[in-house]
Amino acid sequence: MLKKRIIPCLDIKDGRTVKGISFVNLRDAGDPVELARAYAEQSADELVFLDISATDEGRKTLAPLVEKIANAINIPFTVGGGITTREDVSVLISSGADKVSVNTAAILNPPLIAELADEFGSQCVVVAIDAKLVDGTWVVSTHGGKRVTTLPAITWAREAERLGAGEILLTSVNRDGTGEGFSLDITSAVSDNVNIPVIASGGAGSPEHFREVFAETGCTAALAATLFHYGIIKIPELKDFLMRNNVAVRNRPPV
Hints:
Blueprint: E1 5-13, E2 16-21, E3 24-30, H1 32-41, E4 47-51, H2 63-72, E5 77-80, H3 86-94, E6 99-102, H4 104-108, H5 111-120, E7 125-134, E8 137-142, E9 147-152, H6 153-163, E10 167-172, H7 184-193, E11 198-201, H8 207-216, E12 221-224, H9 226-229, H10 235-244
Helix pairs in contact: 1-2, 6-7
């Protein structure tokens, strides 16, 4: 049985970790280096770093901060935000990233996915999909959820895989930061329509939400931010809960 992964996410703005609801009303959540170190010590399986304002501000990801975080952890590290070229990826990998996450740039320039997969390997390329439910249809949004397209999320997930993506990071914009639970319908649909790992994101508010998304969809990992940043639950406690509820997880530490 493939063991499930638990992944904390650091949304970064102005060098600080922030968190909001549906990508707006951001509030400070702490120092990213300290949080990253704490999550590695708690046996998080991976860490995701998203420079959420890089695309809107027309700049690159904060490579010096990426390097500081990479030096503080010993778990796989995915970095996204403002990535538009192979050179951007080279800089981030040199700074300590194991994988990169592309979102808006990949939608505007789909061949970028193939270029990155050819250069760095599919295992390095995560395509982030910010899915928004509009008039009953899950469509892709860009620029940190600010711009809504007419592109169906499932169609884009299939195309991303075809172009060489090694993983999908699927965030429900509608549920992001609400604590109401993952959007099971779109998570299940995307997982069923691709043959690469899918990370569920957006809406985690309790251990039961993780059990639910693993039991009812084909996702291989679940990501959260608010739940972990504000100490609502510790990762070891979450993993213990999942194990007791017949969900196989990686790196289960003592609680």
